[in-house]
Design a protein that fits this description.
This protein has 485 residues and is α+β, with helices and mostly antiparallel strands. The protein is built from 17 helices and 18 strands. Among the domains are: 119 residues, Uridine Diphospho-n-acetylenolpyruvylglucosamine Reductase, domain 3 (2-Layer Sandwich), CATH 3.30.465.10; 112 residues, Alpha-Beta Plaits (2-Layer Sandwich); 91 residues, Alpha-Beta Plaits (2-Layer Sandwich). The protein binds zinc ion. The site of zinc ion (ZN) has 5 residues, from β17.
């Protein structure tokens, strides 16, 4: 069950005064105040809600959830509202409370010996990174939306980003959680332990659950030493197969110092240059693909530069790389990263596009791209592939834009009508290659039904049983992750 139990009618549902008194925080009920909370970042999902509750304490969160459980009202937890799958947007029934964690903002503890930090869910990723940096440490989760996205949301969606190759995704950076359960109890699981074998791992159940099992209110996270030096380079390669050979060489040469390895297709850089003319391709000759790679060195600048340049020379000698630029200053490094980070925005400025966030085993990526590009071109001639992403993690943002002569608002509906067929072809290929149709964005509403299509009945049944056990009333973010029924 993952919808509000229809057989239990709510008490006159708008007893919002009681709610306001009980949790003592800010309760928004005016339509204009609610609006920004009822639409997702990509503006693809619109919902309705009774109110937005903004508690400023864990007790406040628990009080809101208890009221919702009594009233059989759905709870839709929301962090920075930057998710890409519609998980934080309520449905259209208008019987939800959006529970914003934005006011839970304390850094509760930082331990430089245990290398851990304990923060509340509403801290933005940038705030957590800054708190770590002020103590001479690194919190390595790194996403373009770091100024708005919050730690609670990062954990609830098990966010990835550009440093997963070295440090892992949000799940792997989390040591402990504090969670308000679906009946309004608080689980104090903020353990700073690297080792804890005492039964079922509740922490890992709540991470990536997208608020469907409980509300993450705080987390204890891993910290790392700040690297002594970082060097960024961009290499031109002929195809993803060559990029994979470079990955192998880079991992042999750099070991765990290799902290980023991003693939970028030429069309991505063309779109960035078109919409942000100050960001041009760093090479005189265009190449079908590029790799943006970064090393984080503990020994310092000279050592890092020597190892990196040797790697690039060898890659050019062996014909894997046709050209390369190594950034020699912080400004140059930021300019190379900007090329990568502006791709999504540049593609959005080009018009509507169809996004996929897929992963396949790293070794299969070359074959996957070749096969799927060819199949898509055969079925939908002229469509343009905007392919980029975290090659080192086997995760690509495998996006599709309309043909050049079918671009623009007049053709939008015609292009979006192809979406189900393009999704099906792409995701069937992902499945055939042993991959996942959501690598780092989660399921939310966007991929919920498709995920169910590719998962086995055993896997779906286990997931439903977990949902039923932890949220028997079905009030926690209904309609997300699991299909109703
Ligand atoms: Zn990504």
């Amino acid at each position: 069950m993952n919808t509000v139990d229809a057989s239990t009618p709510p008490a006159p549902c708008a007893d919002l005064d009681t709610l306001r008194q009980r949790f003592g925080g800010r309760l928004l009920t005016d339509a204009a105040d609610l609006e920004p909370f009822l639409i997702d970042w990509r503006r693809r999902y619109f919902g309705r809600a009774l109110a937005v509750a903004m508690p400023d304490s864990v007790e406040g969160v628990a009080a809101v959830v208890r009221w919702c459980a009594e009233q059989r009202v759905a709870v839709v937890p929301q962090g920075g509202n930057t998710g890409l799958a519609g998980a934080a947007t309520p449905d259209e029934a208008g019987r939800s409370i959006v529970l914003s964690l934005a006011r839970l903002k304390r850094v509760r503890a930082l331990d430089t010996v245990n290398n851990s930090i304990t923060v509340e869910a509403g801290c933005t990723l940038a705030e957590v990174r800054a708190a770590a940096e002020a103590a001479g440490r690194l919190f390595p989760l790194s996403l373009p939306s770091e100024g708005s996205c919050t730690i609670g949301g990062n954990l609830s969606t098990n966010a990835g980003g550009v440093a997963v190759l070295r440090y892992g995704n949000a799940r792997e950076l989390c040591l402990g959680l504090e969670v308000v359960t679906a009946d309004g109890e608080t689980w104090h699981g903020l353990r700073g332990l690297r080792k804890d074998n005492t039964g079922y791992d509740l922490r890992d159940l709540f991470i990536g659950a997208e608020g469907t099992l409980g509300v993450i209110t705080a987390a204890t996270l891993k910290l790392y030493p700040q690297p002594a030096a970082q060097i960024t380079a961009m290499a031109a390669v002929g195809d993803p197969h060559a990029a994979l050979r470079l990955l192998e060489q880079a991992q042999s040469a750099l070991g765990s110092s290799l902290t980023a390895f991003e693939l970028i297709s030429d069309l991505c850089l063309e779109l960035v240059a078109k919409h942000f003319p100050e960001h041009r391709r760093p090479f005189a000759q265009p190449s079908p693909y590029y790799v943006l790679l970064e090393t984080s060195d503990s020994e310092g600048e000279t050592h890092a530069a020597a190892v990196f340049e040797a790697l690039m020379e060898r890659a050019i000698e062996t014909g894997i790389v046709t050209d390369a630029v190594v950034a020699t200053s912080g400004a140059q490094s930021r300019a190379l990263w900007a090329l990568r980070e502006l791709i999504s925005e540049a593609q959005a400025l080009t018009g509507k596009n169809i996004k996929h966030d897929i992963s396949v085993p790293i070794s299969s990526i070359g074959e996957f791209v070749e096969h799927t590009n060819a199949e898509l071109q055969r079925r939908f001639p002229g469509i343009r592939m905007v392919v980029f992403g975290h090659l080192g993690d086997g995760n690509l943002h495998y996006n599709v834009s309309p043909p050049v002569d079918r671009t623009g608002p007049a053709h939008e509906d015609e292009f979006l009508a192809l979406q189900p067929a393009i999704n099906r072809l792409t995701h069937d290929a992902v499945h055939a290659f042993g991959g996942s149709i959501s690598a780092e964005h989660g399921l939310g509403q966007l991929r919920r039904d498709e995920a169910a299509r590719y998962k086995s009945t055993v896997e779906m049944a286990l997931m439903r049983r977990i949902k039923q056990a932890l949220d028997p009333l079905g009030i926690m973010n209904p309609g997300k992750v699991l299909p109703p029924g």
